[in-house]
Amino acid sequence: MNSSRCWSTYIRRRRLAAPAAVRALRPRLGLLDPYGGTRGLARQIAAAARWCRADRIDLVDVGGDIVAHGDEPTLRSPLGDALAVAACAETGLPASVYVAGPGLDNEVPLPDLLPRLGAPALTLGAAHTEVVAGVFDWHPSEAGALLVAAARGVRGVCGTRDAPRPVLLDATSRQVHRLTLDRVLGLSPLARALAGCRGLDEAEEASRAVCGFSEIARERRRAAHPGTPPARSRPDRDPAAVLDRFAAWERETLAQGIAYATTRRITEELDLTATEARALLTGLRKTVPGRHVPPLWRLAAG
Question: Beta strand 156-159 with 95-100: parallel, antiparallel or unpaired?
Answer without folding.
Answer: unpaired
